[in-house]
Design a protein that fits this description.
Blueprint lengths: L11 H33 L8 E5 L4 E9 L2 E18 L3 E19 L2 H6 L10 E12 L14 E15 L4 E19 L5 E20 L5
Antiparallel strand pairs: 1-2, 1-8, 2-3, 3-4, 4-5, 5-6, 6-7, 7-8
Length: 224
């Protein structure tokens, strides 16, 4: 329906319509301001999540990179120099002790879970400063014996460990980083031992073991 109003200053309908139109025009700047402010607020308010983080470490020296693959989920990869100390005793081998510095690589799937709780307490959550559970695969190239039941190897070989761990990561504003995890896993590798005839034999063996790592270092990302 189209309503036509003839120009007439004394026409009350036209007069009221003009007043209404003028009032609406005066309100437009206020409405636009509200809409722009709401839009800016919605853009600045980000949903909580994690991000990619690159770090260097000096405790177990190395470099790591973490990439977001989903909501609070990441893949974490690290190449580092693993330090291991072994002290053991057995009736067969006697006292044995050793320290090894071995190249190693770890790949982890991480799920972070306590973002809302930390934010509610006013604690830092940036740079994945959260707790997590993780599936771990680690490979260390070492001569070290995995237990007192076996000899140390003459050449480095891959010692593989798979496991599940709980951990936490804290990347502070001053760039200092702490990353700790601990759990249980299964280790398997090539070992050397003696058979019943006293002959040295090489075979593959595995055993359940504790898994864990502590990394101290610095994150390298640009500051926001």
């Amino acid at each position: 329906m189209l309503l036509l109003l003839k120009s007439n200053k004394n026409n009350p309908i036209l007069k009221n319509t003009n007043n209404l139109f003028t009032m609406l025009l005066n309100k437009i700047p206020l409405v636009l301001l509200i809409l722009v402010s709401a839009n800016c607020f919605s853009q600045n308010k980000q949903n909580p999540d994690i991000s990619g983080v690159t770090k260097i470490t000096f405790f177990d020296p190395g470099i790591s990179f973490e990439k977001r693959i989903g909501k609070f989920q990441s893949l974490y990869a690290q190449a580092f120099m693993n330090t291991s100390i072994s002290i053991s005793y057995s009736d067969y081998f006697g006292n044995t002790s050793s320290i090894y510095f071995d190249p190693a690589f770890t790949l982890q799937y991480r799920y972070y879970y306590n973002s809302a709780k930390r934010e509610a307490k006013g604690k830092r959550t940036e740079m994945n400063s959260l707790n997590y559970v993780s599936a771990i695969e680690q490979t260390t190239f070492s001569k070290n014996s995995i237990s007192s039941s076996y000899y140390s190897e003459k050449d480095r070989r891959a010692i593989n460990t798979i496991g599940i761990a709980w951990g936490f990561q804290r990347n502070y504003h001053n760039r200092f980083s702490v990353d700790f995890n601990i759990g249980e896993g299964y280790l398997y590798t090539r070992v050397t031992t003696k058979n019943n005839a006293g002959q040295f034999i090489t075979k593959y063996a595995g055993q359940f073991t504790a898994v864990g790592q502590i990394n101290l270092g610095f994150w390298l990302n640009k500051r926001n």
